[in-house]
# Entry
Amino acid sequence: MNPLVINGQRLQREIDELATISEAPAPVVTRILFSEADLRGRAFVKKICSSLSLKIRSDAVGNLFARWEGFDKKLPAIATGSHIDAIPNAGRYDGVVGVLGALEAIRALQSSGFKPRRAIELIVFTAEEPTRFGIGCLGSRLLAGSLSLDKARALRDRDCKSLEHWRKRGGCNGRLNSVRLARNYYAGFVELHIEQGPLLERAKIPIGVVEKIAAPGTMHVELTGVGGHAGAMLMPDRHDAALAGAEIALAVEQAAKTTGSRDTVGTTGVFRIEPGAVNSVPCHAWLEIDLRDTQVKTRDLALRRIKKTAMQICKRRGVKLKFSVLNADAPAICDSGLVELVAGVCQELRLPVKRMISRAYHDSLFMAQVCPITMIFIPCRGGVSHRPDEYSSLRQIKNGVAVLARTLARLAG
Ligand code: GLV
Ligand code: MN
Ligand code: MN
# Structure
């Protein structure tokens, strides 16, 4: 095998080109599940996969698999990958580094003359971001069998359009029950990602290897009050849905701050009201709440407190409450063998490495239910993510790709 050469310029060009495929003008990247931008982004990635002679298939929810066949076809494949969908007002690196970086790793391995014994498969997961249906990691949840088909079929977007509607529009016609992966389908999964936090940059450490992924939860709150004329409806007569929502959002903050764990974080990231007119009392409000912790116990303590407080607020204000928990997932523990393998590769490359917890969730959280996993983190400027100014330097990305390529070579060789 010749030395591995990572072509950083080409990779940066591809990252920049994919960033132009967006529903919003640059530097904003927005690619909502099965939007035109998402479909064009998928086509862009498929074109690179074809240029590397990878065998491409998609499943019924749009997860994309690109396979570099190994010479021992009886062995389960090694997988890598991430996502290219992007929340509104996102940047260009979240997920994309793990997809285009993995393709660059495969290209470097191919150019070096490496012949994989077991197949290497790139996975581009459907809807890691909770944009259209409010639930994250939709594709990997279904791959792992961790979302029931009934729940998947019941998903609706804001216009009441179903997953069935959107996936068919996206060209995914198979049966949803065929998405689930067999337990021994993969021998391991390694995801490259930007850290989305400040620790690597602060410590000036180029690589993180993930030992645990924090436990996410999502709640949807629907509030129905009484609307009316902002001038004529006197204050004692009001049942303002937006004010009930405002109190609930403050209760989320309070609950997250008082579990006794500094790892509990709560965010009310979506807050919509209707009718949305300055001279009209809000009759409806919708909140989407994100709650996480490294420990299920304290995450669930906050969840229970939020629900109880929301009920009290709504009773006091005479507002009808519908409170649903979309997901309350367990954390994932990474495979110690894979963690040590990545750490060993970093040592060979003379790259200092930090063992860490991922506070963001990733498709790896659900791949952990299917096979051994770990993640490779690279620093990002100021720890900033989910913003257009998200940034990792080419040197940082190349380091991550080099570690991924060598890790894949070890696992597939
Ligand atoms: C992933 O995008 C997350 O919200 O952690
Ligand atoms: Mn993200
Ligand atoms: Mn991501």
